[in-house]
Amino acid sequence: MRDGSSSLRSRAGRLALSLLFLASQSIWQANAFTFTSIPSPNLNLNGLGKVAFAGDFDSISLYQYEGQNEQSTGTNGAVLSRFPNGVFANISQTDGDIRAMCAFQANGTLQGIVFGGNFTSVNGMNTSGGVALLNPDTGNVTALPGLTGSVNALYCDADRGRVFLGGSFTGGGASNAIVWITGWTNMPFSGFNGPVNSITKAPNGKIVFGGVFNGLGGNSSAPRENNTQVLPIGSANLTAQTSSGRPGFTEPQNIVCKQGESQGSGQTWLLADDTAGFWKADFGFGFQPTKLRLHNTNFEDRGTKTWRYTALPDGGIMNFTYTDPSSGQQKFCDARCPLPQNNVTAQDFGFVNIVGMNSFKIDISEWYGAGGGLNGIELFQDDVFAYAINEFNEPKCGGVTTGATSSPTGPWVVTPSGQSQSQYLTARLTGDTLDPNSTFVVFSPDVPQSGNYSVQMFTPGCQGDGTCGTRGIVNITGSMAKSSSASKPISTTLYQTNLFDKYDTIFEGYIDATDGFRPQITLAPAANQGRDPLTIVAQRAKFILKSASSGNLNGLFEYDPGQQEVTNNLSDSVIDAAGASLSPRDDATVTALSSDSSRLFVGGNFSGDGFNNIFAIDETNSTALPGAGLDNQVLTMYINGSILYVGGNFTKTSNGETLGLNGVAAFSTSDNKWSALGAGVEGVVMYIVPFSLNITANTPEQVIGISGFFDRVNGFGTNQAFSAQNFAVWVPSRQNWLHNLNIGSISLQGALTAFTDIPGADTVFGGSINSQELGASGAASLQPGSPLSLNTLPATISAQQQQQASLRKRAIMGDRSNSTTGVVAATFYHENQMNKTILAGHFAATDTDGQNITNLLIIDNKDNNRVRGLDEGLNANSTFQALGVLSPNKNTNVLFAGGSVTGTINNNRINGIIAYDFGNNRYAGSQPPALQGVNVTVNAIAARPKSQDVYVAGQFESAGSLSCSGLCIWNTELNQWVSPGSNFGGVVTSMTWISDTKLLVAGNLTSGGNQTKIVTYDSSKSTFTDFNGARDLPGSVTALCIANTDGSQIWATGQGSDGSTFLQKYDGSKWTPVTDAFGQGTNVRGIQVLTLSKDHGNSDLIGSDQDLLILGQINVPNFGTASGVLYNGSTIQPFLLSTTSSNTPGSLSQVFVENPQNILKSSNKHLALGFIVLIALAIALALTFLLVVAGILVEWYRKRSKGYVPAPTSYPDRGANMSRVPPEHLFGGTLSANRPPAI
User: Which of these, 25, 432, 829, 1073, is most buried using a 10 Å CB contact count?
Assistant: First the structure.
């Protein structure tokens, strides 16, 4: 059932879409991937009339192609293609978002599909740089190693055979921008000092980069004020070898975080006399030191003369540069670095190479006096970090008076680093601890100077600590300046489902470090994630000061790949000059670029002279768009012909001339006008992705997928607003939303975040998608044909609002009524010139007049599919489990509906069952008295053939004042309850008549004082008889069906005492189990034998002309879950797949047909009536022809035997033009003869 309360997510959340359905038509001409079709199930539907399925689902598919499934892609992304039936196919799974993709061509040949994002793995393969290459012929994915970070933008330049990448990454000697050809290739400017968000080719053929940068290259030229951070050596594990053993001089901690020249006991560390040794520090995190400061000792004329620094765990001896205190000259050293004698002042050594490590040691090889020693040690790095584990933060020493800090609150525990760069904090949240206000970490860095920074949040991979199954989402909030006008606060969400380590850029902008202000970042779990338990982690945040190595650069840069050098005069470029004119100066944000044949369109978060958040650049200058731009940020753009689609956080043009844009708008490049898409959405649009659909007939056309942070689409004109769950589709040809067109549809839930066209093949997409063939909630019909297809019923149902997605459950025996959602029971009724469809369960709907309906609806197929509900009187939290219709005469048509049903009708208390009069469309005048007992539930209703008795079964102790446990009879003639007999009780789950007087009853039963699972009830004798062997079934029976026409063979299913599902066949003499058919967690809700139009192989369990349809939530080994499967006696084949709006597998409860009496009769494989008539006519014509021929032959023989000869045909005495038949020949020889004429 659809649930409109699904929570928002940072990557466009749980998105819901309803698209056009044409099951038998393909809209794709070629495909880059090959999909294997599934053979037809060969079901024989002749004579059954309408066939439909009921259950708890919001979308459903026939299993037609290998690869279709019910599984959710979860919170992560995937490379997607489309099956020939239109359903989206998952090609490769990632552990993060796919933000960009393009088809890489070189020398006219497709090299593959490059895709990038913030993922760290593809199909479990490490892709730490967030970029990989897909081979569309084989489906194989190749990592493109060498980058660290994430990719935001790609542009495949087919003319030059290269791929331009932009994002937030380092590697290959570049930062944030690089080129791939056959390996990483640097551009002349080595990237940018801030992230790149978009790349495109301008009309002049040059490459344009857009992002948040104000300089070329990295950060090397940034002006810095003491931008070195002291590493917390004191928090490391300190050891030493061959220490002196003297009290007060042996502990290696003596020399940590120490300033000044004092020495002595507790101040100095000494080696043993005349002995080499080492001092070692092991950290719980990795670091890249830039400077080492050593204080030598002269205690008792001792001291260190030569030493070396070894980086661990790699074991490399580091090279240093230093200033010789005696000569003042710069010198270098490695394995024998010196310290001067009798000089206890600090000596600084700069690392020549910046190398990562998590441990180091100082080896002392020569000494002064009796032995070596040190008076102090400090280690520095340029990177500014704040760690979640506070012991790893910068100590308050080495000239530092503040130091970084962190403050964890909640059940955090330290987790070993494993595959990650450092140890980190982990919180495993359950129940009450899921409250975001009770678990969080506050990071407070020591930022040494104000300026523009990039802030990165690091997340350790879940594969290293085994928490991938419970990882979730965190909210990141923070303040970067004393005034919000100086810098906007941080507010974003991050997925922590990455398999390997990653970092996300969470802030780009100004950080204030004046007057003692300290920025703060808070990490906390996002609310309402539907996970219990939930695991979140906190590791570290990095603060990078940005430089401006080329002046006047502000978010835009034009690059000519044909030039070997980059000009320093940026004003020569119209595009660069346009960026320089934007505000804020040096901090404009460009998020989207798009171009047509003459103009480049720039979107983002900036202002200027009419350039508010969007503007255009032509060959000679930049121009404002009508309305002076838009009133808020632009996040995405897509151009199709002369229409530029724009998405973001805006509501109107900047000057207010065009209203109602609300997150998404269309700009006509030919008319130079803005127009709304309807009235927009209630929220923010993040992605615009086009794809094809058949809107009319079989002609595919492009539609526009809109996704982001919104929960409704605004109404306009005569179209009402509607819930959209963050996704909607605009149909340009109809100038309307697809939802408003009321077209049968496939279903798409998730997010489409990227796409690329492949030459000569279908479009490939990126996103997180769950897709099924048909968007239908609770019920769908099966249409005969080749192939079979599905269609909706003429009613729209949804979950009741109190039902949260995380609370949806499936019905199981013993607690069916309180845990069931969706449609549980359904039936067709066409007696007495009526044609109705009844759906019942636990749901909400709207009738034809717009009134609310709960739990039961009736579709009148003879009254333009008019939808009705029940009158008031029943509690909305009721759940219907069973339906039955009694038609004893042409004037009476009564529907009985039972379940966990309570309320008041005609001032009478209702419990368990109601009666409804079809003829008058109201409750029946006489209602069955309430059932009594604990948790009263009616599970089955069966009207006895050729009688006025309705058998009602379930969980109850009495009916009205009549004691009849589990089974009772309602006599419609007497309007009273009747006991079926004595010595029977228990909970009944299923019933079926096998003759006019024999009823099979199944459940957890007691008959004659004995426990059993199935009994046969004889209504003519009012007696119960144990069904042969039923006592030995492994558990209670939840569903059964007859397997042949006389009811001597049956199928039964249920759950054993160990919780596993069993399925057994009774062949008339013995029970035979089906073994190893189901995986763990299988829940069978219904079974039905169906006949086939083509026989399968022989089986001892089932006839060659039959299959057993099994419905529920079936775990098929080596496949996964399916909502319906077919069993042919040897194998289980998935048949129906369904999902819910919360991206969980659906469940089917029942197949219902218009003519159930023909289900087993149709196995004779009779031809259709039309074919029979044609064949009979052909036979009749053939027999007539033979009779005529025989008559002619007989007459010929008779005349010949009597001497008749042929009459003359010409007369020689007449002219050629007078050769005619004489009158006497015409009339048999004489006019007076009494004979009929010859003609």
Answer: 829
DSSP string, 783-804: EPSSS-EEEE-S--EE--TT--
Mean pLDDT of the chain: 86
Domain ranges of the chain: 229-382, 386-545, 629-743, 797-803+817-980
Let me know if the fold of 229-382 is the same as that of 386-545. Answer: yes
pTM of the entire structure? 0.78
Token pair of 525, please?
A: 């779990």
Pairing of strands 125-126, 121-122: antiparallel
Q: Write out pLDDT tens, residues 90-146.
A: 999 999 999 999 999 999 999 999 999 999 999 999 998 999 999 988 889 999 999
Pairwise CA distance, residues 133 & 115, whole Å: 6
Specify the CATH number for 386-545; select among 3.30.450.20, 2.120.10.30, 2.60.120.260, 1.20.1420.30.
2.60.120.260
Given a contact cutoff of 8 angstroms between Cβ atoms, the answer to whether 1230 and 1224 are in contact is: yes
Could you tell me the two tokens for 647? 């998405």
Q: Is the alpha carbon torsion for 81, 87, 92, 93 positive or negative? A: positive
The pLDDT tens digits of the residues spanning 5-60 come to 333 333 333 333 333 333 333 333 345 578 899 999 999 999 999 999 999 999 99
CA separation, residue 433 to residues 440, 468, 494, 869 (Å): 11, 19, 20, 42
- Position of tokens 């040809």? 733
Q: Is 1017 in contact with 980 (CB distance < 8 Å)?
A: yes
pLDDT tens by residue, 1055-1071? 998 889 999 999 999 99
- Nearest Cα residue to 462 out of 490, 406, 501: 501
DSSP state of 160: T
Residues 885-900: pLDDT tens digits?
987 666 678 999 999 9
Whole-angstrom distance, CA of residue 13 vs CA of residue 75? 8
Strand runs (DSSP E) across 266-417, as ranges? 269-270, 277-287, 291-296, 303-312, 316-317, 320-323, 330-333, 337-338, 346-351, 357-368, 373-381, 384-387, 405-409, 412-415
Which of 855, 889, 886, 880 has the alpha carbon at shortest distance from 869? 855
Long-range contacts of 157-161 (CB under 8 A, 24+ apart): 157/201, 157/207, 157/561, 158/103, 158/105, 158/106, 160/561, 161/105, 161/106, 161/107
Question: In one letter, which amino acid is 1000?
Answer: L
Listed residue (506, 518, 525) closest to 440, CA to CA: 525
Distance CA 986, CA 999 (A): 16
Q: CA 705, CA 18: separation in Å to the nearest integer?
A: 11
Q: Between β-strands 962-963 and 98-106, what pairing exists: parallel, antiparallel or unpaired?
A: unpaired
Q: Tell me, which fold does domain 229-382 have in CATH?
A: Jelly Rolls (2.60.120)
